Amino acid sequence: MIHKYKWNVIVIGGGLAGLTTALHLASNNFSVCLVERSEYPKHKVCGEYVSNEVLPYLKSLRIDPFTVGAKQISKFKITDTNGDPITATLPLGGFGISRYTFDSLLFEALKNKAEIIFDTVEKIIFEENQFRVTTQNKSVLLADFVVGAFGKRSNIDTFLKRKFMQESSPWLGVKAHYDYDFPDDTVALHNFNGGYCGLSKTETGTVNACYLATFKSFKKYGDIEAFQKQELSKNPFLDKFFSGAKPLFERPLTISQISFQEKKPVENHIFMVGDSAGLIHPLCGNGMAMAIKSAQFFSEMLIQLFQKGEFDRTAMERQYASQWHNEFDERIKTGKFIQRILLNPYLAKAGFAMVKTFPSLVPKLIQKTHGNPTE
């Protein structure tokens, strides 16, 4: 059994939220250990569009996604299941970048500032005011604080007996990159029966196609190729895309059991960031920005309290949970509202008709699922 010395913070999970938290704290003289199960670089199921609201914060961490070719995005296009389009200008704009590159960019900035262990966490025990984290390779890691950044659904959630794990989720996510002529400055959302598909350019010039579908709509077709050809392609825009686009992955990446049920930002004294704390519907295109923002205000809170010498754990947990809810509850609520409309054919038809009559509604809805830029 390998015993490591005690860190100020152990971050479990090396996605955007985990990497950003670790980088922020390590850059401010915290001893940090990041535990991630697989090495970089790697692809992940993700929409790969990020709101510009996080750019000032990334700049403060000396992270510039445009140095690796991120695409500036300013336009939004959405179609109903029949392919009827609505276009709008994004209020803040955003950028397109693959998780393969974005995660690697953060990892390269972090690797000489923190301990990074590639392993799978099996247990997290809090006792005598400290954490003991046990990994699959039998390492035992100690820390004052643990940050949970283990994503949408994890074996750790099961170990912690988190409530949302007790119920199955009907959602399936599919993602792949394609060679296709698509505008650099646009993110598109195309609806189909039982789900929606996002399209946007990545830093390499390839198009990321990522869609969310109910398992009920998917299972009658049996496989991804049949589902795309027979269901997604009922939308003329998606038919044109999947007919003409050249797949660049050997096979699409998939993820199942995506849960949009409520989660707690703090559980078992673990501070949850990113999707571990809560998940906005992907149709809002803002999950990556929310992950980074949650890392920001957790890190800022911890740094401020360390500077003051205040370590009231209960007060810290209340403060973080309150800030998380204040920042994200309205966004998530709006996302659920939009999804309910889009997945109901009658409501979707009425909704599209209303937006065509009052086009200013689109930017207003986008603003309700996005935040403001903060330093």
Walk me through the topology:
Blueprint: E1 2-12, H1 16-26, E2 32-36, E3 49-51, H2 55-60, E4 71-79, E5 85-96, H3 99-110, E6 115-118, E7 121-127, E8 130-135, E9 139-148, H4 155-159, E10 171-179, E11 186-192, E12 195-201, E13 207-214, H5 215-219, H6 224-230, H7 236-244, E14 246-247, E15 253-256, E16 266-267, E17 270-272, H8 287-308, H9 313-342, H10 345-357, H11 361-368
Parallel strand pairs: 1-2, 1-9, 2-6, 4-11, 9-17
Antiparallel strand pairs: 3-5, 4-5, 7-8, 8-9, 10-13, 10-14, 10-15, 11-12, 12-13, 16-17
Helix pairs in contact: 1-3, 1-8, 8-9
Search tags:
17 strands; 375 residues; alpha/beta; single chain
Euclidean distance between termini CA atoms? 43 Å
Compute the average pLDDT. Answer: 90
Radius of gyration (CA) equals 21 Å
Which fold name corresponds to the CATH topology of the domain at 2-43 and 98-168 and 259-342? FAD/NAD(P)-binding domain
CATH architectural arrangement of the domain at 2-43 and 98-168 and 259-342: 3-Layer(bba) Sandwich
Largest sheet: 9 strands, mixed
Which regions are unreliable across 5 or more consecutive residues at pLDDT < 50?
none
Counting H and I runs of at least 4 residues, what is the number of helices?
11
Instruction: Using the coordinates above, name the CATH class of the domain at 2-43 and 98-168 and 259-342.
Output: Alpha Beta
**Total strand count, please?**
17
Beta strand %:
25-35%
**What's the SSE pattern?**
EHEEHEEHEEEEHEEEEHHHEEEEHHHH
Principal-axes shape call: globular
| Secondary-structure-derived class | alpha/beta
CATH superfamily of the domain at 2-43 and 98-168 and 259-342: FAD/NAD(P)-binding domain
Q: Kindly state the percentage of residues in helix.
A: 25-40%
Organism: Aequorivita aquimaris
Domain FAD dependent oxidoreductase: 9-41
Keywords: Membrane, Transmembrane, Transmembrane helix
InterPro entries: FAD-dep_OxRdtase, FAD/NAD-bd_sf, Geranylgeranyl_reductase
